[in-house]
């Protein structure tokens, strides 16, 4: 699948801002199943400083500083990329989940994804919720698929219930939330079982109802989970949809939880209150080259 992605963030401040420093994580990652042909960042007003780096998790981060007085700030990320099917873990990796725990603990780099993080803490209530999926002797991958599906089937997608600050245990009790909540919930369940799980941010191509046109700017950011499978790698799971991510899931960044990968964050001098508008457009690019690649690759 080939896509053109636009992610526009606009801040309108109640009073002038004299200076702001920001970090943006809006450039898709280069992955074996995701090839990025182009990624650009446009900022208005134009920043006096803009620098790119990779953070601790290997995500591309743009730091920029706007040093002129302004009352609106618009940040637009434009990307062009191609996705293919993710590799699937072989049946041999579907070992007993309790046996898998011993392998997980052997790598120090995985430890950070087992411990508590700012938005996700381990808890006995999360372990109790996860436990029915992790019966004694059950294969790890089978258990993961079951937990992923249970969250999808027993929780209600409710954009009005939670905020960024809503605790995971509140989501568990109310059985409702949004994709970010369900990702944090599943990560908390898995870490409470002793597994390594990380948060993945990105986009999901949404399809209009039959016969209806695509609405430009009506797509949204999405979040899901990746779990480490011993002797293989990271398996992605989307509890919001009860499925494994496919070619329509576009990866931006990953970390321990949302706090490691916000699309845009920063500090400013002045401004007062502000209004925030976000418009995301994930547009399929029609046509295939002979090799199935984007022209210009």
Automatic annotation (TrEMBL):
Pfam families named among the record's database cross-references: Bact_transglu_N (PF08379), Transglut_core (PF01841)
Superkingdom: Bacteria
Domain Transglutaminase-like: from-to ranges: 171-241
Membrane-spanning residues: none
InterPro entries per record: Bac_transglu_N, Papain-like_cys_pep_sf, Transglutaminase-like
PANTHER family (UniProt xref): BLR2979 PROTEIN (PTHR33490:SF7), BLR5614 PROTEIN-RELATED (PTHR33490)
Protein name: Transglutaminase
């Amino acid at each position: 699948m080939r896509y053109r992605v636009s992610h526009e963030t606009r801040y309108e401040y109640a009073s002038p801002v004299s200076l702001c420093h920001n970090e943006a994580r809006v450039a898709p990652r280069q992955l074996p199943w995701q090839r990025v042909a182009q990624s650009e960042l446009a900022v208005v007003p134009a920043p006096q400083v803009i620098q790119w780096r990779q953070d601790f998790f290997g995500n591309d981060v743009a730091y920029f500083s706007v040093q002129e007085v302004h009352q609106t700030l618009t940040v637009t990320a434009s990307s062009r990329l191609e996705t293919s099917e993710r590799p699937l873990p072989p049946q041999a990796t579907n070992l007993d989940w309790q046996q898998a725990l011993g392998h997980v603990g052997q790598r120090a780099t995985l430890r950070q994804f087992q411990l508590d993080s700012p938005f996700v803490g381990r808890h006995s209530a999360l372990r109790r919720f996860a436990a029915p999926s992790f019966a004694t002797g059950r294969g790890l991958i089978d258990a993961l698929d079951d937990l992923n599906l249970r969250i999808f089937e027993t929780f209600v997608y409710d954009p009005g219930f939670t905020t960024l600050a809503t605790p995971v245990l509140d989501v568990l009790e109310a059985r409702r939330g949004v994709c970010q909540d369900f990702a944090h919930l599943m990560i908390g369940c898995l870490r409470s079982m002793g597994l390594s799980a990380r948060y993945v941010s990105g986009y999901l191509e949404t399809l209009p109802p039959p016969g209806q046109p695509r609405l430009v700017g009506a797509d949204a950011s999405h979040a899901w989970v990746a779990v480490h499978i011993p002797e293989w790698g990271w398996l992605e799971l989307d509890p919001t949809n009860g499925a494994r991510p496919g070619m329509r899931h576009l990866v931006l960044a990953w970390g321990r939880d949302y706090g490691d990968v916000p699309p845009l964050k920063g500090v400013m001098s002045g401004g007062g209150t502000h209004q925030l508008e976000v418009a995301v457009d994930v547009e399929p690019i029609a046509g295939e080259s002979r090799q199935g690649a984007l022209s210009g690759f």
